[in-house]
Amino acid sequence: MLLEAINMDEFHEKSQKCKSAIMPFGSVEEHGPHLPLGTDTIHAYELAKSTAKYIDVFVCPPIWYGLCKSTSQHPGTITISGYTLRRLAVEIAGSLYAQGIRNFIMVSGHAGSTHMAYLVDAGEQILADYKESRVAVLSIIDIIAGSCKELVETEGDAHAGEVETSLMLHLRPEWVTGTAEREFPSFPKHILVRDKIPFWPKGVWGDPAKATVEKGQAILDRESRYLADLINKIEKMEKGF
Ligand SMILES: [Zn+2]
Question: Alpha-carbon distance 221 to 223, whole Å?
């Protein structure tokens, strides 16, 4: 049930029974020389839509912008602060809560650790503010680790590599411009650097050459089933709320 596609009467009727909403988060961020800037948002949103085939759930319009740290200087990346991201998450969940939604599944196509930390913090705020709420926060890296890591050949593949290239070949083939070389960033441990591009020139974290359209299809399907199971679990959970 896509929120932007249903009318108020349909929402009213469906929300009597369905109390769960997926909130897809993404980014506008460089994804190497071969993938679109919107890769993370497209992935999260298509995953949410595909999950809705397996379980009754509202799918919110995606939040296109995220907090991008290591890619902030690459061409095309548009980043927002963690405060803004956190606030968006809390306010959107609060408004959905007022409309009767109780279970919030925040799924992020962008998996940066600082970005995810703000979403987790937002989730804790939602739990504190809305007494009947239940919250899950997870990134596509978490979902892949839990659902289909055996499909991925490249160890540590995380950004614009085998997984995301496969997914875009499946979801938006017309927006994929060839491929890119295998690359991994070389940021120093613990040290924050002002000039980031020398440590990650091409903006790829993994191996795009290992991508196939069939892999993209299989990954999305496994991810969707995993997310549907999680929603089923959060709806049935008694302890902890
Ligand atoms: Zn990505």
Answer: 5
